[in-house]
Amino acid sequence: MTNMNQDKQATYAAIDAWIDEHFDEEVKFLQAMVQVPTDTPPGNNAPHAERTAELIKGFGFDAEKHVVPEADVKAYGMESITNLIVRRQYGAQGDGGRTIALNAHGDVVPPGEGWTKDPYGAEIEDGKLYGRAAAVSKSDFASFTFAVRALEAVAKPAKGAVELHYTYDEEFGGIMGPGWLLEKGLTKPDLMIAAGFSYEVVTAHNGCLQMEITVQGKMAHAAVPHTGVDALQATAVLLTALYAENVKYKQVTSKVPGIKHPYLNIGRIDGGTNTNVVPGKVMLKIDRRMIPEENPVEVEASIRAVIAKAIEDFNTQGGYTGEDAVRVDIKRLLLANAMTPLDGNKPLVDAIQAHGEAVFGEKPPAVGTPLYTDVRLYVERGIPGVIYGAGPRTVLESHAKRSDERLVLEDLRRATKVVARSLVDLTA
Fold first, then answer.
1. Are 30 and 104 in contact (CB under 8 A)?
2. Predicted confidence (pLDDT) at residue 362 exceeds the cutoff of 90
3. CB atoms within 10 A of CB 274
4. Residue 341 needs a FRET pair 20 to 30 A away by CA distance; which of 126, 163, 232, 377 works?
């Protein structure tokens, strides 16, 4: 047993050394990933997949290009999606070895305002790499790719397999990313790790319901407002009712560490035509985060009831009936189920925690996160998964979805080591 343990420790040390030796190359690879924009919307992401496939070919990795049909992508609200699978088979089929998938998404939210660096410059300053998706989640295109390279160069596994899944639909919900690959039967791993941060291993996450609400009033000239019905006034009543729900949600707490309570966010409002026109239509988009203990069907029904009651109250108070009554149309944009841990995720958690402690000097806790991710799509199909990768302690520190998103390069180096070491254990 002692000799076996010594052999393993020697393998881990050699893994670490290989990653150190190739770290400049890994950073350059990440820079190349960041420098190809994948703003979603509009979601023209096929060019990034082509660039990724081209670069990893230089590592000896052949990427299968799975092009989602254009009509499906356009109907979905994006422009182009090519998902990539890299299959690395180490043992014979049926030898008892496990297939471990590593998934990172290349699509990102648009940069927005307030940047002091070029969002696609991949500039390095004070040990940090700046750029949109530097932390979420193109960093794990690099960490996962180089972890597999280190595994193969040093450990030379003779059992099991690893698959790299580079996908391009996380920001829209993953249905045309991992969801599409899984639905088409293109992959069915035994275990999976998805892009995440370095200081915790995430085993559960919130669900998310997104809706588009259109409030229909009656447009009129502002000089004769009594001839119209102000959709914006009705929306103000609706907003008050929706925000009041957040007060109630604070009384609903999750038992999952890292997850607190449900939350409703109104992220976008559009309406009106001009300053001298009574608004006839207002559109708003809402995002309702669901804790794992909630039932998504009940949550949606409850929100629809709140909306209907608010509009009914507005019509009653204003005396609006018949054709003058304000109407509301509700469209579901996304329903992402919460991720709850599967019993089979223990080997993943154990390996990442052990090597996280060895490399970082502290054991990453197994916790939940209020985010929602593509992992749920694997878990829903019975594939145990966790979230772990290169990044800081919190989303706030990473500036993900904000200006000047950045990644501490030392976190990238160490996370790559943790993933590579874990793959040694998982493919044994």
1. no
2. yes
3. 7
4. 163
Mean pLDDT confidence for 370-396:
90
Please give the structure tokens belonging to residue 254.
């999750």
Are the C-beta atoms of 288 and 208 separated by less than 8 Å?
yes
Query: Model confidence over 200-210: pLDDT tens digits?
Result: 999 988 999 99
Please name the helix (run of DSSP H) or strand (run of DSSP E) that holds residue 269, with its range, or none.
strand 263-271
Give me the mean pLDDT over the 281-296 stretch. Answer: 94
In the block, residue with structure tokens 């045309």: 176
Residue type, 312: E
Q: How far apart are CA 360 and CA 10, in angstroms?
A: 18
Convert the pLDDT of each residue in 146-179 to its tens digit: 999 999 999 999 999 999 999 999 988 899 999 9
CB-based burial of residue 282 (10 Å sphere; 0-12 exposed, 13-18 middle, 19+ buried)?
buried
Domains of the chain: 2-205+338-426 (3.40.630.10), 207-336 (3.30.70.360)
Round to whole Å and give the CA distance between 198 and 421: 14
DSSP result, 212-225: EEEEE-B-EETTSG
Q: What angle do CA 424, 425, 428 make, to 5 degrees?
A: 85
The SS3 of residue 382 is coil
370 upstream amide cis, omega within 30 of 0: no
- Which one-letter amino acid corresponds to residue 365? P
> Rounded to an integer, what distance in angstroms lies between the CA atom of residue 86 and that of residue 64?
6
If DSSP codes are grouped into helix, strand and coil, which group holds residue 244?
A: helix
pLDDT, tens digit, 9 for 90 and up, residues 13-29: 999 999 999 999 999 99
84-140 pLDDT, tens digit each: 999 999 988 777 899 999 999 999 999 999 999 999 999 999 999 999 999 999 999
Q: How far is CA 362 from the centre of its chain?
A: 25
CB 205 within 8 Å of CB 339 = yes
Cα–Cα distance for residue pair 213/270, rounded to 1 Å: 11
| 1, pLDDT greater than 50 | no
Omega before residue 302 within 30° of 0, cis: no
Residue 252 half-sphere exposure, CB side, CA atoms within 13 Å?
17
- Beta strand 124-125 with 128-130 is antiparallel
Supply the pLDDT for residue 39.
96
In terms of Cα–Cα distance, which of 175, 142, 164 is closest to 64?
A: 164
Task: Determine the Cα–Cα distance for residues 168 and 47; give it in Å rounded to an integer.
Answer: 11
Backbone CA torsion sign across 419, 422, 427, 428: positive
Are 200 and 257 in contact by the 8 Å Cβ rule? The answer is: no
